[in-house]
Design a protein that fits this description.
The chain is α/β, with parallel strands linked by helices. It is built from 21 helices and 16 strands.
């Protein structure tokens, strides 16, 4: 059986590196840098994994999962180095390409370590091949002035062009900088099982630093990313991992006890679980999705939650017979539509390179069709919430505007007023519009519509 490498052996030259980019720790008033040894086999594994990810034919997390399964000899520290390095390169890809005459996976990896992660060329020397010392010397010394906005924001040109229709260059740059930072770990308290104060106290007793989220009344933000899925609070269903922005969508839906609710694109069920808890396990939440695999991930979460009002079901599409049987009967419908996912680039930095204007056009057609199909379920006086984790007008306001034009029986509600009625202190206007550099959440959009006829 192959042994996992966690310490050097013959032929493995160690070198120190900084762990991730140096980040300013406001609470300590200084930069904190953690040093870690790099070994030759780690660098080679990261190069190979990065080469596969840079094909952009599949999600980076899926590629890394497959890579680690095929390289079981890699230990925990090895895998951490590979993942951190690959995601670091993805977050700074445009900048690294400007530094290098030829942006090969190995060159980008070395440039990332030397220029972004703060590793000195001297420290990397034992791992370098012929000519790489000179390359990194130039990389470290190179001054890059007057870079295009898209390069400074670490976004493709076509995305920046679209953002410029609604944001200033300064706002785009602030957004881009926020999107290249790793996302925090947010938790949602399952109010059927616990209160937020109890969860915060239990976490503190476990030595885990956490604080309330600024907007969601049931959110908790951890200071550090840890394996929370092993904590008793997680195992007994008192908490779920859910970004604060995603939690706020539940408050826009605002379901009441005893109502009939449909989560039209339920996925792994995070929002369905929140809706069920807001209803205190009374009424019924139909969790629909076209993916058997995603709904399969929902089942263990549902079991932990203690909720009895959730009913997951696989549907073929928005015209499925299950959907038609509920036409005109539903109090609340949430459409968290499939989208470009550009609001989640803190977690999925490869997405910006896997999307394109052509894929965006296909997505908007799908979004319009799903929203139209879901609207048939809403009863008079009921609420339809359309949401995405996109930053682009084409996937957000434009979809809602076109729907309202084609469906005069629906009117636009004010999301700020809906949130205020639930004591959520957040006003982004009639639409819910969350931005990483402003709100510290993933990028989210939501519109609340009422069926008036």
């Amino acid at each position: 059986m192959a042994r996992r490498r966690s310490s050097p052996s013959a032929g493995q030259d160690p070198v120190l590196r900084s762990r991730g980019e140096t980040r300013r720790r406001a609470d300590r008033g200084r930069d904190r840098v953690e040093r870690r040894v790099i070994y030759r086999h780690q660098l080679e594994a990261a190069r190979e994994a990065l080469g596969r990810v840079l094909r952009f034919d599949r999600p980076a997390d899926a590629v890394l999962h497959e890579f680690f399964r095929a390289h079981r000899q890699l230990g925990a520290q090895d895998r951490a180095f590979v993942a951190e390095s690959v995601y670091g390169v993805l977050r700074r890809k445009r900048y690294l390409e400007q530094l290098l005459p030829e942006a090969t996976p190995r060159a980008m990896l070395l440039a990332y370590l030397a220029r972004v992660a703060g590793t000195s060329v001297r420290e990397l020397t034992p791992l370098l091949r012929s000519g790489e010392m000179e390359l990194l010397g130039r990389v470290k010394a190179l001054e890059l002035d007057d870079l295009p906005l898209a390069v400074r924001a670490e976004l493709p040109d076509w995305i920046v062009e679209r953002l410029r229709t609604r944001m200033t260059d300064e706002e785009i740059l602030a957004l881009g900088r926020a999107l290249r930072e790793p996302a925090p770990l947010d938790l949602r308290v399952n109010t059927v099982r616990a209160r937020r104060e109890e969860v915060l106290s239990a976490l503190a007793s476990s030595g885990i630093e956490a604080r309330p989220t600024p907007y969601s009344p049931i959110g908790v933000r951890l200071k550090d990313k840890i394996a929370i899925n092993r904590h008793p609070l997680f195992l007994n269903g008192a908490i779920e991992v859910q970004d604060e922005g995603s939690q706020l969508l539940g408050y826009v839906v605002a379901p009441r006890r005893g109502e009939l609710v449909v989560d039209f694109c339920a996925g792994a069920g995070g929002k369905s679980l929140m809706l069920g808890a807001l209803m205190h396990s009374h009424g019924r939440v139909y969790a629909f999705d076209v993916s058997v695999r995603r709904l399969a991930q929902f089942k263990p979460r549902l079991k932990r939650s203690g909720l009895s009002n959730l009913h997951p079901a696989v549907i073929a599409n928005e015209n499925d017979a299950r959907v038609k049987r509920l036409a005109g009967r539903i109090d609340r419908v949430l459409v968290d539509a499939p989208c470009s996912g550009l609001g989640t680039l803190r977690r999925n930095p490869d997405l910006k390179w896997r999307q394109s204007p052509a894929s965006l056009e296909e997505l908007t057609r799908k979004q319009a069709a799903i929203l139209q199909g879901a609207a048939r379920l809403v009863k008079p006086g009921g609420r339809l919430v359309y949401a995405t984790c996109s930053l682009l007008t084409e996937e957000n306001e434009a979809i809602v505007d076109a729907f309202l034009t084609a469906n005069p029986g629906f009117s636009l509600l004010d999301c700020a007023q809906i949130l205020k009625a639930q004591r959520v202190d957040l006003d982004t206007g009639r639409y819910l519009s969350l931005l990483p550099h402003v709100h510290g959440t993933d990028g989210f959009f939501a519109a609340a519509l009422e069926r008036v006829a």
